[in-house]
């Protein structure tokens, strides 16, 4: 990695941190510049506008989150049914910093993101891909298409809602309780009975 | 209702609308005053500070949301088990403006609320009471204490996460799919089998 890409990476990493902590709207490129420790010329070279910087940082946050989900969900070579359900449970039970909130989910409450078509599309694409990945794993576990999609929406909603509950109550156990309540139901019903 | 309480009510209603649309931090008392149509003297008479206005509006939003949940969840006179589960399903399936987001849940992403101990406590109390009400209904449905609490957290997380998914994808069906996926599991498992 040369000095230029290193400066770019430090700018993106600093923007990701600050966006997660205080939102996109409340973060100025100048603050990101100060936090990153790179020279001012690098900022304007790599990111002429705040939109360019926000797109890179939101894109990196989404790529990180999707990669983490895929590590939990991706196919085992044998395609075993029980194993597929265990992968969904692993996705649900992965330790999360509940009080910090989901770095992607919180962007849906960030007006500066939702008012910007380009940024909103990146957030939308994350959830569409995540829901597809969970639904595919639930189909591997033996669920028919419609039930797999509904249950995938429920699984992702449990994680997102768990973050909301943890932040609202100031208690990370609130998220763990939501996941536990859902996983108990999920593993008692590995296949559609209706 | 005299003119003074009417002016107070209009100020609170206008603040509730604007907080839901653009957040507490981005809303000035002056904007609320303009939207309410009341005289400037009324604003400073009823709400000397922005905190006073925010506390009244957040309190009213929480009271409305809790009353709506209690209408779905409150005990039927006969305490019938199936009926108790049906009440939880009614809470989950109540039609919601999914794309607008939860008026209370979104406050957990509003830094102006979470940084203010008084406002944050009002939001926390809402979720504690809502979780208690859902857990009590699930105990009426025959679940033991621990399972009822976990499943109540899951139910409230489904609603909150459903809002996040609907806003993120721009599709209100995303919330309905999450609720449907959870309700199918819930009604297939009316009692703890583990």
TrEMBL record, chains A, B:
UniProt key word Lipid metabolism: no
MF-aspect GO terms: DNA binding
Classification via InterPro entries: Homeodomain-like_sf, HTH_TetR, Tet_transcr_reg_TetR-rel_C_sf, YxaF_TetR_C
DNA-binding region as annotated in the record: 28-47
Keyword terms of this UniProt record: DNA-binding, Transcription, Transcription regulation
Residue ranges annotated for the HTH tetR-type domain, each copy included: 5-65
Pfam short name (any one): TetR_C_13_2
Top-rank lineage group of the source organism: Bacteria
Name of protein: Transcriptional regulator, TetR family
Source species of the chain: Krasilnikoviella flava
């Amino acid at each position: 990695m040369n000095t230029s890409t290193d400066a770019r990476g430090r700018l993106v990493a600093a923007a990701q941190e600050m966006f997660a902590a205080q939102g996109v709207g409340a973060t100025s490129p100048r603050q990101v510049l100060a936090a990153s420790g790179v020279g001012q010329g690098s900022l304007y070279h790599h990111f002429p506008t705040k939109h360019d910087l926000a797109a890179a940082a939101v894109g990196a946050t989404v790529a990180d989150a999707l990669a983490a989900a895929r590590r939990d969900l991706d196919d085992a070579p044998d395609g075993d049914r029980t194993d597929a359900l265990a992968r969904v449970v692993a996705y649900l039970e992965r330790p999360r910093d509940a009080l910090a909130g989901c770095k992607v989910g919180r962007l849906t409450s960030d007006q500066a993101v939702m008012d910007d078509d380009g940024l909103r599309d990146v957030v939308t694409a994350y959830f569409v891909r995540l829901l597809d990945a969970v639904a595919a794993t639930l189909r591997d576990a033996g669920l028919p298409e419609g039930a797999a999609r509904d249950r995938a929406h429920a699984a992702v909603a449990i994680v997102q809602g768990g973050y909301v509950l943890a932040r609202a109550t100031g208690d990370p156990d609130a998220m763990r309780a939501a996941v536990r309540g859902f996983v108990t139901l999920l593993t008692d019903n590995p296949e559609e009975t209706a």
